[in-house]
Task: inverse folding
């Protein structure tokens, strides 16, 4: 009868496109801001669909531009 309530953050989806050589930097960045990988296409050029918590969205967008060679699109 006592079911615990699980709270999940509201996620805003972004597509990240970048060269495979940046994979380590991007994955570290995603983990730091609590983003969730929804879809992953990793070849010579990578495409990630990530969900960014709405509370971290502004900081995420301000800092992701520090990684040169990454293209970010909001869905």
Result:
């Amino acid at each position: 009868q006592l079911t615990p309530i699980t709270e999940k953050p509201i996620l805003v989806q972004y597509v990240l496109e970048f060269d495979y050589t940046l994979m380590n930097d991007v994955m570290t960045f995603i983990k730091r801001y609590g983003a969730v990988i929804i879809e992953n296409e990793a070849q010579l050029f990578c495409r990630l669909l990530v969900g960014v918590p709405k509370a971290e969205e502004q900081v995420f967008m301000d800092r992701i531009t520090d990684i040169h060679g990454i293209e970010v699109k909001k869905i």
In short: The chain has a mean pLDDT of 92. Residues 23-32 form the longest helix (10 residues). The CA atoms of residues 9 and 55 lie 8 Å apart.
